[in-house]
Input
Amino acid sequence: MRTIPGALREAAERWPDHAAIVDGDTTLTFAQLHERVRRVAAGFGLEDGDRVCLWAPNSWRWEVAALAVTYAGGVLVPLNTRYTGHEVVDVVSRTNPRLIVIEDGFLGRTQSSELADAATEAGLVLPSVLVTSQLPDAEPVAFPEVAAADLADILFTSGTTGRSKGAMTAHGQSVEAARIWGELGEVTSDDRYLVVNPFFHSFGYKAGILVSLLYGATLYPQAVFDVNAAIDTIERDRITVLPGAPTIFNALLEQDRSTRDLSSLRFAVTGAAMVPVALVERMQSELSFDLVLTAFGMTECVMGAMGRRGDPPELVAGTTGRVVPGMEMRVDAPTGEDGELLFRGPLVMLGYLDDPIATAEAIDADGWLHTGDVARVDPEGNLKITDRLKDMYVAGGFNVYPAEIEQVIARLDGVVESAVVGLPDERLGEVGRAYVVRRAGAEITEEDVIAHCKERLANFKIPRSVRFVDVLPRNLAGKVLKTQLRSGGGL
Output
């Protein structure tokens, strides 16, 4: 298996004058990207294994900063741009980074102030904080040799305990996942890739930046999805590759495209929510995609299953494809019946940061990763996700874990308990609803609950609605019956 710095060096040697990334007025060839990364890596002054938190939106600077961290032998810790300062401080306190790189002013916020205020409230002394517009520029030095088995990144994913967990992945695992994704997507250096998926997510980072390094595709990052800007970019730059959640393609299809030329589009990967057959058909007929695939992955295993060329629309929409090369997939049930989905193989994470108990719960003694998803596999090996053992739901392509929201709501004065569920939403796939039990005499309103969540949670986690109930429905063991809450019954 290769390393991330090795992939960058090879790309610079193979396609030195080919554009690696086009971001507004900035274009970097692979040779220029390599040189810029080396100079920033030297300026970071990291020691082998140092961690760097990166809190910024998609841009050429994000790619340079991220690659510089691993080039210098460090460990990248990407942070969700929608995180509040409190959420960032929680990750910082657990990863002990040498440096925090942020973009100030994104989405009209002042991230530097949010971070400082939250750190003061938590009693945390922050390490050096650097803004992306002031990345260092130093003479390259001799960098440490990085091995494929070395830790490359820690991506945080919320857990059912209500606190995020840091999934640790090695260089070779990240690069191999990107290689498989690019191979099944038939990506080449002729491709121009609009990256709507955030770089802080494995979809944007590993199936985006790393795929570009391996196959020579040119990236066009978009900091925030804007359908009109996306259409302009597709038409002007002849974009060929556009992965994303179904909401992205629904938005494109809802626009008036009668005078626009989007015929360059050839490859899409979608998922993260139920995909209607009609959407796949319209993507192929109205958006000109030659290859539309669905896939299954998670932070703990970036690539598990993916479709293949030739899959009919019904199969693309109804399944997430077959297990990817080199991996094993198993459902704890007879073929065609529902059971928990498990994966084993070289792409399964190394484990959770400083959490051996959670690691042992996720990865059993035989090396199988327990995904927490209920699935079935047909005789041809196609995977269909049918339910979730965990309470997670997907809002606009982002995983949302109700336990994390419930813990925040519990801190609101006057709340006895709450339960959060995901409900179907035409635009976002699913949105959250909180069922709240108030203390006697408490006058908490729906607006109070939502405002409290906005102070502590990223926007995609904030419930869209709140319902007040006298009691939460429970089974005989005392477990909240969330299926009943989702259906609205028994209240």
Notes: Residues 393 and 400 are 5 Å apart (CA to CA). The chain has 15 helices and 24 strands. The first strand starts at residue 19 and ends at 23.
